[in-house]
Amino acid sequence: MIRRPLFLLLLSVGGTLAAQTALRPEDTPALPAEEAPAESAAEPATPAEPPVANWVEAQVELHRRGYSCGSIDGVRGAQTAEAMKAFQRNEGLNPTGDLDPGTRELLLLTAPPLTAHTFTSAELARVEPVPDTWLGKSQSSGLHHATALEFLAEQYRANPRYLRALNPDFNWDDLLPGATLTVPDVAPFTSPLKVARIHIRLAEKVLEATTEEGRIVLHCPVSIARNVEKRPVGELKVTVVIPDPDYTFDPAVFPESAEGQELGRRLIIPPGPNNPVGLAWIGLDRPGYGLHGTPDPEKVGRTESHGCFRLANWDAVALLSLVKVGTPVVVEP
């Protein structure tokens, strides 16, 4: 990954690169060396890690620390507010969900919020349309990203509309290897902390993996079952953890699917980010129930499932690295 200072953002304009000045309020252009005033001992030094200045920076930094706020879009929505509250609780602050002064003192920007991504031939070779039917999906070699925009949005946890806004002159329909775009600077989340249990709060549609002492290691939005009777309340346990799972399509589980009823048989759907359970499956000790990814991160916490707990792929993969067989899962009303 190529890192750039915040004041230099690379945008692709018809296959060429252009520089865009984007100074934060506290940034000032440097004077030429011969005109630079002598440094005053009374002036405080610029902090190496400044407080976040806006909601884009806050979302990026929260993601870096394991507080997933859904897709990065620069807006203080409900999921961003819940992620901020989780950070504030961990730090002993009043959980307002806002960028108040006390929060700004502790939520410091560990790196510039934006960076550049240059597409490779290998990445573009894996972009291919996803079949519309269950039968078509079952006959695919793998359910990869359908578009370059979808790939980039999931890679950097960004709302597709926000990526388009960051790169307004980019032609997404004429993409070649070497094309460079501006993206949020986030990476897959890992933690050395040991997770003792998972908490799922149904009313808030959030999941939190915590240590034995109750410190939050990972916080993320979650979708829950549409039918109340299919929402298990109480303590469950993890029984299996599977990266890149396949999926068994069972027509009995999808009575609303005309294709499923016509097929009348089960199908094995191959792995990939567009697999119905995404990039991770964490099975629970209740038949048919689990925590898993989804090909539709924008819908997590906003739509409901048939019974399982759905996470964005990036959160499901992060959770997979933190839990093991036997980890308790406490589901609260």
Helix content: 10-25%
What CATH architecture of the domain at 197-244 and 279-332 do you see? Beta Barrel
Strand content: 15-25%
- In order across it, which strands form the biggest sheet? 7-6-5-14-8-11-12-13
Note the total helix count. 9
Largest sheet: 8 strands, mixed
Give the CA-based shape.
Answer: globular
Q: What name is given to the CATH topology of the domain at 197-244 and 279-332?
A: L,D-transpeptidase catalytic domain-like
**Rg, Cα atoms, Å:** 22 Å
In the CATH scheme, the class of the domain at 197-244 and 279-332 would be Mainly Beta
Total count of strands: 14
Explain what you see.
The protein is α+β, with helices and mostly antiparallel strands and 333 residues long. It has a domain at 197-244 and 279-332: L,D-transpeptidase catalytic domain-like. It is 20% helix and 21% strand. The protein has helices at 55-64, 78-90, 101-106, 121-125, 134-138, 148-155, 160-166, 258-263, 313-320; strands at residues 8-13, 16-21, 114-118, 180-184, 197-201, 206-210, 216-221, 234-243, 247-249, 267-269, 280-284, 290-292, 309-310, 328-332. The strands form four sheets. An eight-stranded mixed sheet has the order 7-6-5-14-8-11-12-13, sandwiched between helices. A hairpin with a 5-residue loop joins strand 6 and strand 7. The longest helix is centred in the N-terminal third of the chain and has 13 residues, at 78-90. It is globular and about 65 Å long. 36% of the residues are buried.
